[in-house]
C-alpha cells in the first residue's frame, strides 16, 4: 500500500509539472521564432552563441574554489550591470507604481488624503508597500534612485536566499547556479528601475520558505509565518503559500515510511499559520487605530480579478469595458453581486472556458515578458532594434530555465522532499492564473522556484558530462 501511495503521489506531481514545463518550453520557443525580434538566421546564430556563453560562464563559476571570491565576482558584476541599466534607462514611476509612490510622498508629509482615492478604497492591501516607501523616503529623501538601489539589494537578497534554499540538499555547484541565474535573469534587470512591490514581497516570502525548510524549532516556524505575513502586506500572495505549506506537510506525511509523525507535521504548519494570521491582525489593528488605513490590508473588490481573468475578449487581461461596468456600483454587496453574475455567466460555456484557459496560459507563461515595457516607462526612448535584441535575450534566458526545469522533473532525486514545496508553489501559481487576471510580469514571483529547479536540471547534465569525461 505504501509503495502504491508513493508512486501515486509522485506520479501526480510529475505529470502536472512535466505538462506545465513542456507547455511553456514549446510555446516559448514558438513565440520567439514567430516574434520577428531577429531574422531566423540571425536568431539561430545568437541562440547558439548565447547558450555557449551561458554554459561556459556557469562552468567557469563552479571552478572558483573560494566562496568569497565567487560571491564578490558575481555580485559585483550584477550590481555594475544594474547601475549601468539605471544610467542608460532612468525609469520614472508610472501607472500603479506612480500612484503608490505619490501616496508615499504624501504620507511623509502627514497628508493621508490619498486614502479616499478609489484605488486605495478598493485595494487597501497596496498600503503596505506605500508605507514601506514612505519610511524609506522619510529617512533618505524623495530621490527615486534610493528606492531603485533598494531594488538592487533586494534582488541580491532573493538570489542569496535561493542559493541557501537549494544548498539545504544539493552541492555548492547547484547553489552557485541558482545565485548566478537569479542575478542575471534579464526581466529582473529590466525591472530594476521600476518602483514595484515585487522585489520586497518575493524576498520576504522566499526567506520565509528558507527558514521553514531549514529549522524545525517552533519559534523559527513562527518567524516564517511572520515573514509570510509581511510579504503578503507587500503583495497578496500569502494565502497561496499557506495552502502550499499545508499541502507540503500532507505530502511529506504520505511519503513517509511509517506515517507516525502527522501531529508533528500539523504542529509545524499550524505554528506558521497562526503566526501569519496573528501578524496580519496586529498590523491591521495598528493601522486602523492610528488612522493610517480605514480598512484592513485586504481586497475590498474581491471579484474584480476573476471578472478580468474570465474575460474571453481580452484573454484574461485588463478590460476598460469591465471596469466601466463594475464602477456603476459602489464598493460592497452590490458590486460583489454584479461581479458574481458576470463570473457565473462567463463560466457557463465550458468548451469556451477551457479554450480561454489554454490561451491565457500561452499569454501568461510563453508570450513576451512585459518587464522591458515597464522598465522603459514613458520617459525612456530606445530604438526598436535594441528592444528586439533585449526581448530576444529575455526569451532565450527564459527558455534555458524552463527547459532545464523540465529535465529536473524527469530526473528528480527521490530524497529531495523539500523540493515538493517548490513544486506545489509552481503548480498552485500556474492554476490560480487560469482563473484570475494575467500579466506576464506576474511571472516575477515564481521565477526563483523555476530557477531552483533549472539549477537541479543543469547540475544533472554537468555531473553526467563530468563523469563521462573522467571515464574516457
**Count of distinct strands:** 0
Oligomeric state:
single chain
Give the overall silhouette.
globular
Q: Name the beta content range.
A: under 5%
Radius of gyration using CA atoms only: 23 Å
The biggest sheet, with number of strands, parallel, antiparallel or mixed sense and barrel status, is: none
Walkthrough of the structure:
GO terms for molecular function: pentosyltransferase activity. Keywords: Cell membrane, Glycosyltransferase, Membrane, Transferase, Transmembrane, Transmembrane helix. Its EC number is 2.4.-.-. The chain crosses the membrane at residues 12-29, 41-62, 69-87, 145-166, 187-213, 233-254, 266-287, 389-408, 420-436, 442-462. The structure is a single chain. By secondary structure, the protein is mainly alpha-helical. The protein has one domain (2-289, 366-419, 441-471). It has 21 helices and no strands. The protein has helices at residues 2-34, 40-62, 67-88, 95-108, 118-122, 127-140, 144-166, 172-184, 186-190, 198-214, 218-234, 238-255, 262-289, 304-309, 320-326, 333-346, 350-366, 371-376, 384-410, 419-432, 447-471. Helix 10 (198-214) packs antiparallel against helix 11 (218-234), helix 11 runs antiparallel to helix 12 (238-255) and helix 11 crosses helix 13. The longest helix has 33 residues, at 2-34. The model has no long low-confidence stretch (mean pLDDT 90).
Amino acid at each position: 500500500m505504501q509503495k502504491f501511495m508513493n508512486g501515486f503521489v509522485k506520479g501526480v506531481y510529475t505529470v502536472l509539472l512535466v505538462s506545465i514545463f513542456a507547455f511553456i518550453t514549446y510555446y516559448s520557443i514558438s513565440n520567439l521564432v514567430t516574434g520577428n525580434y531577429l531574422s531566423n538566421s540571425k536568431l539561430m546564430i545568437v541562440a547558439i552563441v548565447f547558450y555557449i556563453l551561458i554554459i561556459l560562464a556557469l562552468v567557469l563559476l563552479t571552478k572558483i574554489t573560494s566562496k568569497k571570491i565567487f560571491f564578490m565576482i558575481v555580485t559585483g558584476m550584477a550590481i555594475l550591470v544594474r547601475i549601468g541599466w539605471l544610467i542608460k534607462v532612468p525609469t520614472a514611476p508610472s501607472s500603479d507604481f506612480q500612484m503608490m509612490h505619490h501616496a508615499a510622498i504624501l504620507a511623509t508629509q502627514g497628508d493621508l488624503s490619498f486614502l479616499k482615492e478609489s484605488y486605495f478604497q478598493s485595494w487597501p492591501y497596496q498600503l503596505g508597500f506605500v508605507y514601506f516607501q514612505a519610511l524609506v523616503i522619510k529617512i533618505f529623501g524623495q530621490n527615486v534612485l534610493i528606492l531603485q538601489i533598494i531594488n538592487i539589494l533586494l534582488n541580491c537578497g532573493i538570489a542569496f536566499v535561493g542559493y541557501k534554499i537549494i544548498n539545504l540538499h544539493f552541492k555548492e555547484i547547484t547553489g552557485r547556479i541558482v545565485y548566478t541565474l537569479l542575478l542575471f535573469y534579464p526581466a529582473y534587470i529590466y525591472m530594476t528601475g521600476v518602483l514595484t512591490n515585487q522585489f520586497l514581497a518575493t524576498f520576504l516570502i522566499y526567506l520565509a520558505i528558507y527558514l521553514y525548510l531549514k529549522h524545525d524549532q517552533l519559534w523559527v516556524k513562527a518567524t516564517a509565518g511572520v515573514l509570510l505575513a509581511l510579504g503578503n502586506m507587500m503583495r497578496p500572495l500569502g494565502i497561496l503559500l499557506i495552502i502550499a505549506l499545508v499541502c507540503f506537510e500532507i505530502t511529506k506525511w504520505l511519503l513517509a515510511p511509517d506515517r507516525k509523525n502527522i501531529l508533528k507535521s500539523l504542529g509545524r504548519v499550524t505554528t506558521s499559520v497562526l503566526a501569519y494570521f496573528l501578524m496580519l491582525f496586529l498590523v491591521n489593528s495598528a493601522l486602523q487605530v492610528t488612522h493610517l488605513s480605514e480598512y484592513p490590508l485586504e481586497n475590498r473588490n474581491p471579484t474584480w480579478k476573476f471578472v478580468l481573468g474570465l474575460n474571453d475578449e481580452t484573454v484574461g487581461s485588463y478590460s476598460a469595458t469591465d471596469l466601466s461596468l463594475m464602477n456603476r456600483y459602489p464598493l460592497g454587496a452590490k458590486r460583489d453581486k454584479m461581479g458574481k453574475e458576470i463570473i457565473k455567466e462567463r463560466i457557463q460555456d465550458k468548451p469556451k472556458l477551457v479554450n480561454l484557459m489554454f490561451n491565457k496560459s500561452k499569454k501568461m507563461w510563453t508570450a513576451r515578458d512585459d518587464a522591458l515595457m515597464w522598465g522603459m516607462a514613458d520617459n525612456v526612448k530606445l530604438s526598436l532594434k535594441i528592444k528586439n535584441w533585449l526581448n530576444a535575450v529575455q526569451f532565450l534566458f527564459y527558455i534555458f530555465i524552463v527547459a532545464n526545469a523540465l529535465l529536473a522533473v524527469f530526473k528528480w532525486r527521490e530524497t529531495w522532499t523539500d523540493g515538493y514545496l517548490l513544486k506545489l508553489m509552481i503548480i498552485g501559481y500556474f492554476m490560480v492564473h487560469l482563473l484570475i487576471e494575467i500579466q506576464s510580469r506576474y511571472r516575477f514571483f515564481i521565477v526563483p522556484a523555476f530557477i531552483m529547479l533549472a539549477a537541479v536540471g543543469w547540475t544533472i547534465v554537468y555531473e553526467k558530462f563530468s563523469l563521462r569525461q573522467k571515464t574516457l
